[in-house]
C-alpha cells in the first residue's frame, strides 16, 4: 500500500516500450513515445465547489470558484507542466467509505480546475489554447473507494500527441 500523497504533491509518469517488444529488424526494440502525465494532489478532501452552492450567497460561491481556479493555476505552475497543445483531464476523488455519492456533482469542481489550465486570468497556468473538447478532453470525474485511506482529490493531466 502506497502512502497517500499530500496536497500539492505531483507525480509524473513516462513510459517506454517493454523489453520484449521488437521492431521489424528483430534486433531493434520498439520505442514508444514517452507518456507525459501529471497527477496533481489537490488540497481538498471534499469538492470545494458544490452544485447546490448557488442556493446561498452568490458572492461566496463565486469566491470558492475563484479560489479553486487560482489554487489549480499555482499547483500546475509548481508542477512545471509545459505547454501541451492538447490534453486529457480526469478528476478522481478517493474516499474511505461506500457512502453513495454522485460523480456528476464533481463536475462543478472540475470546471474551474480546467479553466485554470486554459485561461488568461491572473493566476492561471495556460497549457492549452482553450478548454474546448478538441483541445482538452475532460473525462467524467471518478469516485474510487479506498478503505482505510483519507479522502483525497487528484487531477490527472495527460498530454495528447
What is this structure, in a nutshell?
This protein has two helices and six strands; from the N terminus they run E-E-H-E-H-E-E-E. The protein is an alpha/beta fold and about 160 residues long.
Question: What is the number of strand segments?
Answer: 6
Q: How large is the share of residues in beta strands?
A: 15-25%
Mean pLDDT: 85
Q: Identify low-pLDDT runs.
A: 13-22
What's the N-to-C terminus distance?
32 Å
Q: How many strands, which pairing sense, and closed or not: the largest β-sheet? A: 6 strands, mixed
Number of domains: 1
Q: What is Rg?
A: 18 Å
CATH topology term: 60s Ribosomal Protein L30, Chain: A
User: With helices defined by DSSP (H or I, 4 residues minimum), what is the helix count?
Assistant: 2
Tell the overall outline.
Answer: globular
CATH class: Alpha Beta
Q: What is the name of the CATH architecture?
A: 2-Layer Sandwich
* Structure classification: alpha/beta
Amount of helix: 10-25%
Sequence of secondary-structure elements: EEHEHEEE
Which descriptors apply to this entry?
six-stranded mixed β-sheet; 2 helices; RusA-like_sf; 60s Ribosomal Protein L30, Chain: A; 161 residues; 21% strand
